[in-house]
Amino acid sequence: MSFFDRPARVARTKLVLAAWHRRRTEVLPGVAPVALMLARTDDTAVALTDVRGYPNGFAFLLRLRWGPAADRDEQPPWPVAMLGSPDPLGGEPFPDELLRFGVQFADGHRVTNMDGYPYVPEELPPDQPVLTEGAGIDSEGGSLGRGAYWDLDQAVQPLPPPGPLAFVCAWPGRGISESRVEIDAALVLDAAVAAVPYFPDGGRR
Amino acid sequence: MSPRELPWPCPNVIPGMAPLAAILARTEETAVAVTGIRAYPSGFGFTLDLRLRGGVPRDMRMHWPLAGMFDHPRGLPADTLLRLTVEFADGRSVSNAHAPRVRASRTRTARC
Fold first, then answer.
1. Nearest chain B alpha carbon to A67
2. What's this model's pTM, rounded to 2 decimal places?
3. What's the domain range around A76?
């Protein structure tokens, strides 16, 4: 290994993201009729909408809502582990203030935002789901009345197998214990089948 | 009344999702599609997907393509902007070409 060679997992991550971003620009996804409330307390809600199926995975919008803050000018805290590092927490325990979120397939495979997102190891099996940033809607957040919100665009590759598809979250710092909501993966698979290329020649011009 | 003064979107509601995605128009260089139709008690939102390729002039690549949402440089030909109209079954319609100027959200979600 030369001085400037990057770790294998970084190269693998770039490959995953590049393929995903290329696909999202070439394909109009199908949409699944899914709107879920994953968890809710008096002042916090975690919901999921905008499930979109692509030939190689699916995307969704994770919607976080905070109730009124005591300080009107308070900015909504970033609710997930910082991106851009293979070890975003520096080996420290996952803080209670951050949202734990994951997806589990019917065959038992699962991925969470605690798995070193968005870095994945080089030797990762192809059927192991990968969680990346989303597919075109873009994440955004800000004040909402006296509360706040984040809409996080997320994506999972590959497509799930038939059977239950589970979305799981926990947010200890917001009083949310582990919550699990399942849908039929057929909803996602049907959306993926409905995906069509924007251009018949695949956009390669 | 500014569109920003309307009670929209409903902040305390998870929208229902319509399982619909459709290409509205397509040429060899341009595709216009709608997806992510979200229904709220007081209206609906959607994502407008635009794909441009080929001969897009360099000075046009960063311009917001929707009329009525941003100021555009003087002299920019009107036909370089996308017109979008939503029409109901009863004949009522709304067009971005006639809507008051608002700041578009980063989600590219039109507010009609």
1. B12
2. 0.81
3. 8-196
